[in-house]
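An example makes the point: we let one protein speak, the chain in one-letter code, the fold tokenised, and here it is:
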Amino acid sequence: MNALWLIPVDGSLPALRAVDHVLREAARDTIAPAIMLINVQPPLPSDVTRFVSHGVVQDYHREAGEAALADARFRLDAGGLAYSPHILVGEPAPTIVNFAREQHCTLIVIGARGLGSVASALLGSVTSKVIHLTELPVLVVK
């Protein structure tokens, strides 16, 4: 089975560290893994979407998602690593896990938020939730 790695990114420095780690790992291997780059946009509240058209909401999510993916895409392009970008809408952790399962990913590479374990448990970070929700291997990059 070919390696298919999922990299969730939100435009943050920890997410970009995960992208950089994948670039370093891929450079060491003779066969680079297939990469899926995703950004998950939280749904807008119904008291907002009730007053704007579905098309405007879709445009908003697409534009925000493209902005969040931009630096990661630039780094992967510069590193010569092929990838497929995806913008999804939903609650981040379950959306990441479901997408990884549906796409038959073999690894999720995700950035750490830099919070201590106590703060992470109290805040319920996306990374912690992904680890708890998936049965796939998860590589957390600090």
Notes: The chain has a mean pLDDT of 90.
